[in-house]
From TrEMBL:
Name of the protein this chain belongs to: Zn(2)-C6 fungal-type domain-containing protein
InterPro entries: Fun_TF, Zn2-C6_fun-type_DNA-bd_sf, Zn2Cys6_DnaBD
Single GO term (MF): DNA-binding transcription factor activity, RNA polymerase II-specific
Entries under SUPFAM superfamilies matching the protein: Zn2/Cys6 DNA-binding domain
Protein location: Nucleus
Pfam families attached to this UniProt entry: Fungal_trans_2, Zn_clus
Gene Ontology annotations for the cellular component aspect, listed alphabetically: nucleus
Amino acid sequence: MKVKCDEAKPKCIRCSKRDKECTYATNGSKFRMVETALEANREQANNASFGALDLIDKDLSAKIDQAIALDESISPFIASPHELPDLASRIDYALLKQPYGGPRVEPTRDAVLDSDTIFSFPFESILSLSDEMHRKYFDVFFSEFAEIVAPLKASSDAFFFRDVVIQYSMKKDYLYFAMLASGARLSYRRTLEDDDQNACAAFMKKTLELLNDYTMVLTLSKDQVESLNLSIIVQTVETLTLTILLLTSDNASSMKDSWRSHLKGAKELLRKVFIDEAFPKTKVLTFCKCWFTGFEILAGLTAPFGGVLVQSHEIEKLSTNVNDENEVQILRELQLVSKEDFNYIFGFHNKLLPPLIKLMTRMRKGNTNIGPKADSDFVFDMISELRAFKDYDFTAIELDSKYPWAQTTHMTYVNAALLTVLTKFLHVPLDTSAVIELVNSILDSVTAGIKAENATDSIIFPLMMVQWPLLAAGFSASTDEQKFKLDSIFHLLAGWGSGSAQYSIEMMKRAWNNINPNLNVDLMAY
């Protein structure tokens, strides 16, 4: 049976789970659309059409691209009278404790939203509104989607990504609805229930409100910024960047190619901060830069068209600078980098980032049909640098897990990079002992983690972080045992809701059958 699909090839989530064959809309065909505006409530959400969500994703992506291209000046920034959703409807003040002044003293907005108090924010005070649907998808975001985006953390009390998104969602409605949309989309990927998809479409429609702020911020000059209310503008830039990166995560994990437009949008905002220096380099924006860098690395290593940073000065300025002690110290304060320099966002040692950037950059310059061309100096320098990272030991890092995932993710990235150098640059045959050993090393550490976690749902979160190393191992697998393990792991990920996992399975099988694995689908292993 064929059904019309709204996602990228090779198969959408709906068809993969139901074992149906996908057909795709051709030029000139139309999805049935809802004429009236979608509002984020149950009655109107249930009226959303099947294709509405995909159309909204594409519409938002296209409008972000259009906003980037704007060059005309704008009127001075004027804060919206509705810039802050009603805090009273989202906060149970009776539950608030210090440092906000006690249970009967309402906190100021600045106190509630201060990034310096991020870890002491009492999240039990968030009602997630009295709206049952909002609460449902807030809970999915809180307990599941946030874990997918940032599966590794110093402790359960140090979850900066989740905590900062929730706090900043009180500043702008579009971040709040982006948060709910990510929960609804993840729920839909599990259940395939139309209610979940329709709710996501309704929430996504509300995120379109970010475009007004985005266009204003993007076209502000440094001189204009100095003449305006800096506090309001900086908060807007922070909230915008968080929202667009959250939408990038949502799209990248949903088998949609619209992640690229969102990542470009985040790049332009970060450019205003770290290249144009129109806005201050706040702690939140330093975190956003780190989050963006994680995307760029995965896109550069796994997406057919690479990432969104092309020029060398962009790569230098917009990637996390692991040699800048001030920047690293901020990430340590936010508990995103350990004292051993393990980066919880990346999943590896901070100093492994520069070699991966070099590898990513060199791969982009090569001929993808025959493998990147490299001189011997580059190859042997890379091997020397990467081998040095095999000596790092992160087993002492405290993680809320039965298994040392920090050590595992770090070593799988090191081994995957070595595999890439050997097979893509030196063209070492896959059945040689060096390649087989590296593939087995990746698989042994990951399967040991699966066994240690007893195959519970919690295993899925760290597995999400090692999809590129697993894909690199898949391209280099030569034995039936290796292929069976890889196929099983990616099916586990696909069944849990990873959009790119199904794509990875298709690419690996093509490679195993000596077919060019490139499917020309602009997805990253995320």
